[in-house]
Amino acid sequence: MGRLIINNVGFNHSHDVDFFVERPKGSGDYLFLLIKTGAFFNLNGIEKSVSENSFILYKKGSPQIYRCIPKQTFTNDWIHFDFESEEEKEILYKIPFDRPIKLKDINFFTFCIKMIASETYSSNKNKNQNILNYMSLIFSKIDEQ
Q1: Angstrom distance (rounded) from CA 71 to CA 94
Q2: In angstroms, rounded to a whole number, what is the distance separating the alpha carbons of residues 100 and 79?
Q3: Taking the mean position of all CA atoms in its chain, how far away is CA 72?
């Protein structure tokens, strides 16, 4: 069995008012974006306002185009990740890709992402399993909502 690979993870980062992401072919991996402040997202060619306390799970290869609301900063957590094999994708449950979904409470998710960041940059001997456990928990709790 392969493993889940964290390519990049960020926790509670506030971006400047001119922040703008434009990846027409995606980032080359999956992106879990926890949206803590409102922002504009281009989804299927249509720009939409997405409210705080939402998330988007981008599929590999999906366009990732989003920006701050004018004159506001943008705060988010993110995980760029991939899988070594197809088997691990089962942790994603049936969570829809490429569309914003409102969460009841983001505190649990932001805690998990903080722990994933901590594990990713640690030398803990069980870090790969711990990261997989946290990711599984995130998607399991989203599936429950």
Answers
A1: 36
A2: 16
A3: 21
- Residue count of the chain, please give it: 145
How many CB atoms are closer than 10 A to CB 97? 12
The CA distance from 91 to 13, in Å, is 26
Contact 54, 104 (CB under 8 A): no
What does the longest C-alpha to C-alpha distance in the chain come to? 47
Q: How far apart are CA 62 and CA 1, in angstroms?
A: 26
User: Which two three-digit tokens encode residue 74?
Assistant: 């943008």
Cβ atoms of residues 18 and 89 within 8 Å? no
* Distance between CA atoms of residues 89 and 75, nearest Å: 27
pLDDT digits (tens, 9 = 90+) for 48-65: 999 999 999 999 999 999
Q: Residue 98 burial by CB count (10 A; 0-12/13-18/19+): exposed, middle or buried?
A: middle
pLDDT score for 1:
45
